[in-house]
Amino acid sequence: MEYKTRQWHEKCFVCCTCKNPIGTKSFIPKEHDIYCAKCYEDKFATKCTKCKKVRTGGLPVTKESSGTDSI
């Protein structure tokens, strides 16, 4: 396989965190590292303060943006 004009064995093109081969799966490059989508999300995604799950979509609701003091 080829990435950034460099050649890789499929078994050598791996996620820098879990070390699983990327193969044909999605990946995210960050600086000099390559992450599988799950490891990238686990490490860098914004998480809910309470349940710690990854937040998806929309802007966070804040006291200032909601217009109320209920948060």
Give structural attributes.
two-stranded antiparallel ribbon, alpha+beta, two-stranded antiparallel sheet, Cysteine Rich Protein, 71 residues
Question: How would the blueprint of this fold be written?
Answer:
Layout: E1 2-3, E2 6-7, E3 27-30, E4 33-36, H1 37-44, H2 63-66
Antiparallel strand pairs: 1-2, 3-4
- The DSSP helix count reads 2
Please tally the β strands and state the result: 4
Number of domains: 1
Question: What's the CATH superfamily, by name?
Answer: Cysteine Rich Protein
Elements, N to C (H/E): EEEEHH
Secondary-structure class: alpha+beta
Strand residue content: 15-25%
Enumerate the spans where pLDDT stays under 50 for 5 or more consecutive residues.
none
Give the biggest sheet.
2 strands, antiparallel
From the coordinates shown, what is the CATH architecture? Ribbon
Kindly report the spatial arrangement of strands forming the biggest sheet: 1-2
Q: What's the CATH C level?
A: Mainly Beta
At the fold tier of CATH, the topology name is Cysteine Rich Protein
On the 0-100 scale, what is the average pLDDT?
Answer: 83
Percentage of residues assigned to helices: 10-25%
